[in-house]
């Protein structure tokens, strides 16, 4: 078990709650968890610890929103996602941590700008995202999740551009991220990013994820579609700026 101060444990507990809220109500809140874990733990350890908690949050999100998921919408993303992950693997061969964060931040801001521009240009009658959008967002999502575990904001913008209702948005995203995070698990174990001390620490933090999941469910009942979309966009912009400027 890592030897941490009471303040460090409090920060990790808050991060765990943020994971739960992000999975069941407000996806962009996950940026807070990333920042808190990175501030308290070494980079590799923070990535592994957060991954396990994200998986727990994924399954709570699936349980809460399972009736609203649109799983067929994920099928066009799979080939593009795989291609993006290969591109990310190649990129990691020559990019350092600083450039990686800045590139991801810049990509996220570009994705947000394009998404908002499309919606402004087309107005309320914009058609749902088609094959071209699936290829573009899927490739960027695969790239960003491979190089910085930052695929969440990109795919959030995809589901937002597709104009999914709130529950369908969260249910579909839950299945998507559950698959991605489980796929990362054996690689993280093989690289030594997840070890026994990481698991023991996360066992103490899981109640925070559960509490955050139910808190998110409570908050969700108070958000209409327009407020939900606005909050998601703002939180995603904050996350992009954090990566770009950190």
TrEMBL record:
Major location category of this protein: membrane
Gene Ontology CC terms, in alphabetical order: plasma membrane
Domain of life: Bacteria
Bilayer topology annotation: Multi-pass membrane protein
Membrane-spanning segments: 34-61, 73-91, 103-120, 132-151, 189-215, 227-245
InterPro entries: TM_pro_TauE-like, TSUP
Keywords annotated in UniProt: Cell membrane, Membrane, Transmembrane, Transmembrane helix, Transport
Localization terms from the record: Cell membrane
Pfam families: TauE
PANTHER family the record matches: MEMBRANE TRANSPORTER PROTEIN YDHB-RELATED, TRANSMEMBRANE PROTEIN YFCA
Record-stated family: Belongs to the 4-toluene sulfonate uptake permease (TSUP) (TC 2.A.102) family.
Name under which the protein is recorded: Probable membrane transporter protein
């Amino acid at each position: 078990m890592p030897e941490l101060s009471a303040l460090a444990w409090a920060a990790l507990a808050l991060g765990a709650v943020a994971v739960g809220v992000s999975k069941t109500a407000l996806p962009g809140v996950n940026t807070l968890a990333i920042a808190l874990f990175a501030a308290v733990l070494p980079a590799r350890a923070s990535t592994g610890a957060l991954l396990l908690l994200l998986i727990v949050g994924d399954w709570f999100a699936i349980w809460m929103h399972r009736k609203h998921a649109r799983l067929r919408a994920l099928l066009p993303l799979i080939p593009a996602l795989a291609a993006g992950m290969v591109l990310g693997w190649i990129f990691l061969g020559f990019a350092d941590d600083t450039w990686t964060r800045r590139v991801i931040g810049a990509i996220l801001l570009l994705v947000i700008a394009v998404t908002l521009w499309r919606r402004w240009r087309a107005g309320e009658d914009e058609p749902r995202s088609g094959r071209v959008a699936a290829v573009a967002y899927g490739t960027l999502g695969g790239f960003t999740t491979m190089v910085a575990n930052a695929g969440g904001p990109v795919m959030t913008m995809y589901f937002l551009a597709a104009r999914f209702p709130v529950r369908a948005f969260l249910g579909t995203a839950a299945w998507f991220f559950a698959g991605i995070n489980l796929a990362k698990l054996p690689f993280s174990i093989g690289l030594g990013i997840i070890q026994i001390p990481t698991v023991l620490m996360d066992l103490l933090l899981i109640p925070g994820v559960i509490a955050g999941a139910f808190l998110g469910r409570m908050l969700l009942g108070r958000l209409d579609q327009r407020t939900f979309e606005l909050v998601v966009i703002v939180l995603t912009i904050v996350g992009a700026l954090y990566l770009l400027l950190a």
